[in-house]
Amino acid sequence: MSGANDVERVYSAMEEAAGLLGVPVAREKVRPVLTAYQDALADAVVVFSMAGGRRATELDFSISVPTDHGDPFTTALQRGLTEKTGHPVDNLLAELREGFPLGMYAIDGMVSTGFKKTYASFPTNEPQPLADLLDVPSMPASARANAKLFANYGLDKVQMVSVDYPKRQVNLYFSELNTDYLQPAQVKSLAAEMGLVEPSGLGLEFAKGSFAVYPTLSYDTDASDRLCYAVISSDPALAPTTSEPEVTQFSTYANNAPYAYAGENRTLVYGLTLTPKEEYYKLGSYYQITDYQRKLVKAFEALD
């Protein structure tokens, strides 16, 4: 019964978060996802994430899944949330599980379409060398093509890998960042070498506080589709934008998104995202957190 109650609770919070953006939730798509992982919901990290401007028509949700609950992609297949396509993307999570120590899984979805991603997170103090991940058979060739470039900018230790099944894309979440490479000149240089837009002044200042940097890699091209600088904070006014309606969108969401840890400040994760054509921003609000996120917030806000 507790699992069913958690489904109701998290679904209600999701609807509340989506309502702040005027985004409808497709109940028939979302409820099966929550039900499939309901045994993990009580203690899961749960994040509801928006993006600015024209992208504020969607809301993503992420839910952590303990490793002892089994491979979440297998669960998704068994529950009919997705299906195998014969593409290498189907095999990547299993190959990571077989070849590396894992501390946690997670799944990700959209409120309009349901399940879309899995995550493999390495133990907190054991990020894996990028060079080792390149030997994984189903890792996209674009990871190998860009490995030297990433390493040249201090991006060589991976904390987490995400696998987007509909888009056939992979994110590598680099951690243990050298702050020298978060300075404006280095951020601008990396973006230029990756063929991405030059970050704005606000974006460059924002990137200095990043705790993770993650490129989006495709199986179809060696070029990186996106690069994101992520900042964790409790500051509801941190989004690096001054234009309307984004200021209002971010402020409304950051100050009102539901969260289940009453008596504490709401934990937020912001993202500066660069593409070949534009710069935009993302904001995730943690509905449920663990002590790990609390420690991250304290550590990074202490740097200010």
Structural topology:
Layout: H1 2-21, H2 27-36, E1 46-51, E2 60-65, H3 72-78, H4 92-99, E3 104-110, E4 114-121, E5 128-129, H5 130-133, H6 141-152, E6 157-164, E7 169-174, H7 184-193, H8 201-207, E8 212-218, E9 224-233, H9 246-256, E10 268-274, E11 279-288, H10 291-301
Antiparallel strand pairs: 1-2, 1-11, 2-3, 3-4, 4-6, 5-6, 6-7, 7-8, 8-9, 9-10, 10-11
Helix pairs in contact: 1-2
Please provide a written account of the structure.
The termini are far apart. By secondary structure, the protein is α+β, with helices and mostly antiparallel strands. The chain has ten helices and eleven strands. The chain has helices at residues 2-21, 27-36, 72-78, 92-99, 130-133, 141-152, 184-193, 201-207, 246-256, 291-301, and strands spanning 46-51, 60-65, 104-110, 114-121, 128-129, 157-164, 169-174, 212-218, 224-233, 268-274, 279-288. Strands 1-2-3-4-6-7-8-9-10-11 form a ten-stranded antiparallel barrel, surrounded by eight helices. The longest helix is centred in the first third of the chain and has 20 residues, at 2-21.
Number of strands: 11
Number of helices: 10
What are the low-pLDDT stretches, counting only 5+ consecutive residues below 50? Answer: none
N- to C-terminal distance: 45 Å
Q: Tell me the overall shape.
A: globular
- As a percent range, the share of strand residues is 25-35%
Structural class: alpha+beta
Order of helices and strands: HHEEHHEEEHHEEHHEEHEEH
Rounded to the nearest angstrom, the radius of gyration is: 18 Å
Taking the sheet with the most strands, its summary is:
10 strands, antiparallel, barrel
Mean pLDDT, all residues: 95
- What is the helix content? 25-40%
Strand order of the largest sheet: 1-2-3-4-6-7-8-9-10-11
